[in-house]
Design goal:
Layout: E1 2-18, E2 24-43, E3 48-53, H1 71-83, E4 89-95, H2 105-121, H3 131-141, H4 145-150, E5 153-157, E6 162-165, E7 172-178, H5 185-198, H6 210-218, H7 221-227, E8 229-230, H8 233-239, H9 243-252, E9 257-260, E10 267-271, H10 274-287, E11 292-298, E12 304-305
Parallel strand pairs: 1-8, 3-4
Antiparallel strand pairs: 1-2, 1-12, 2-4, 2-5, 5-6, 7-10, 7-11, 9-10
The protein binds cytidine-5'-monophosphate.
């Protein structure tokens, strides 16, 4: 059973105060883009995980765990427990989504494993676990996992896991600049808190950007570009100042919008047209500032059996 699953970029990442459980209240507008990992699940003696770079991908898989702490392995365990079977499955993960890059690659693999294992162990027409059930299980693994099951464009509240699909029109064209070495998501949230405390700023109570929603609904790339915001960006830039040069380069080279993707360090650039995206990608590549320059479009569907 093979499942293809997309990366995400956050169009709006509004970070509110820290909650009692250590998570931050968020307004998180997720957008799935056409950069995919693939997870294949086959019956096996016991749970095992193998990770490799996808064909033609130069993704660095060095930091991906292959034990029980791999999020896809956790997903397999949760599905097995829910279905009352033993998690006897070998998971082969082919990665094209940057690792620890702020594009939810690990969460994507977990979402793909949820869908793949649920189908592997229960192939009835009317399966016991619905897509909603899998999204609920996904929330136990990580805040971004339910969205990777759902895909498209969606507004997440709570810690980002309570989702409502957003109305969009047309296709948006993106360029991503990856960086060598990842950023730890908890470290970036902690830096965000530290910077706010240092500046004596009370944490904002984020609300969904109306400007953003209108741009999405009307397919207005220019409007979307000016509405992009990420409250984690100052923290990511503080931990990795070199990202400032990458964002500036993208803007100078004609990107309509530029921001750090999620907790970084990948930088995301929105172009007005597909042709602009192609030009921007080759120009950015020429600067040598990015480890890798990738192109993708969105929105695309969530975890899908292929
Ligand atoms: O949910 P997930 O395990 O992906 O989150 C990773 C880390 O990101 C958390 O341990 C936490 O430090 C931070 N986080 C947060 N608030 C959120 C989501 C994530 O502080 N809403």
């Amino acid at each position: 059973m093979t499942v293809r699953v997309p990366a995400k970029v956050n169009l709006q990442l509004g970070v509110g105060p820290i909650r009692d459980d250590g998570y931050h209240g968020l307004v998180n507008v997720f957008h799935a883009v056409s950069l995919f990992d693939e997870v294949t699940a086959v019956h096996a003696e016991r749970l095992e995980v193998r990770v490799q770079a996808a064909p033609y991908s130069r993704v660095d898989i060095g930091g991906v765990p292959t034990g029980d702490d791999n999020l896809a392995a956790k997903a397999a365990g949760l599905v097995a427990a829910r279905l009352g079977v033993e998690p006897r499955v070998a998971l082969r993960i082919r990665k094209a989504i940057p690792v620890a890059g702020g594009m939810a690659g690990g969460s994507a693999d977990a979402a793909a494993a949820l869908v793949a294992c649920a189908r592997l162990w229960d192939d009835r027409d009317d399966p016991a676990l619905t897509r909603d059930d899998l999204m609920e299980l996904g929330a136990e693994i990580g805040s971004d996992v339910p969205f990777a099951v759902l895909g498209g464009t969606a507004v997440g509240v709570g810690r980002g896991e309570r989702l409502t699909s957003a109305l969009t029109r047309g296709t948006f064209h993106w360029v991503f600049a990856t960086a060598g070495g990842g950023l730890s998501t908890p470290a970036v949230y902690a830096e965000c808190d530290r910077l706010r405390e240092e500046q004596g700023e009370p944490p904002p109570r984020p609300g969904v950007s109306e400007e953003l929603m209108t741009a999405l609904a009307t397919g207005d790339a220019k409007g979307l570009a000016t509405a992009l915001t990420n409250d984690l960006e100052p923290a990511a830039l503080s931990l990795r100042p070199s990202l400032g040069r990458v964002l500036d380069a993208g803007r100078d080279l004609g990107a309509a919008g530029a921001l750090v993707s999620g907790s970084g360090p990948t930088c995301a650039f929105l172009a007005e047209t597909e042709e602009d995206a192609a030009d921007l990608a080759s120009a950015l590549d020429g600067t040598g500032l990015a480890a890798q320059v990738l192109r993708a479009s969105g929105p695309v569907p969530g975890a899908t059996v292929v």
